[in-house]
Amino acid sequence: MGRYLISIIFVIAVIVGSAAIYFPGYWEHRFDTLIERHSRVYRVDELLVWSIIYEETYYRPWKVGADQEVGLMQVTPTVAREWAKETGLKVYERQASEDLYGLLSDPEKNIQVGCWYLEKLREQYRGRQAETAMMLAAYNAGPSRVTEWTKDIDADTISEADFISRIGISSTKAYVTSILRRYREIPAKTAK
Q1: How far apart, in whole angstroms, are the C-alpha atoms of residue 141 and residue 167?
Q2: Residues with Cβ < 8 Å from 146, sequence gap 6 or more?
Q3: CB-based contact 96:88 (threshold 8 Å)
Q4: Which fold has domain 31-124?
Q5: pLDDT digit string (tens) for 6-59?
Q6: Domains in the chain: boundaries
Q7: pTM
């Protein structure tokens, strides 16, 4: 019985792995409807959300990060609890305190909370030349880091390239650069 179960698990793993390799279109676009819906609600570009999810988890809703961030968009427990409280719905507040993993491993809720947080961050940087780069840096390293990296300059007029060069955490700099590159390449690819 044990060998049989191991064989079945192995076959399933091979099939799933092969599907991810040979059918990346399905793997990468299976959440597009959810991304489109929530990006519209929170007025965030769906291609940017797609690029963030690609970078964060490559579409694995079960992923848990080193700092306990959960799901497709790697939402932190603090952000999830803040979102739940702001909704005013006790069911979400209860779930955020009792079953955070269950709440955030649900692709629909994860994308909803992630888009909500992106819009909240974007409000802080709206109209700045480096708006999107600042928003991504804040999403990855926190808004206080963006403030730190722009404290001695005019944050409204700094160019995106100059802002990125000021990012003091190499992993955040790579994160922002990678997402912006992918985000900007998507329209060019779809136009062909």
Answers
A1: 10
A2: 124, 125, 134, 137, 138
A3: no
A4: Lysozyme (1.10.530)
A5: 777 776 766 655 555 555 555 578 899 999 999 999 999 999 999 999 999 999
A6: 31-124, 127-186
A7: 0.84
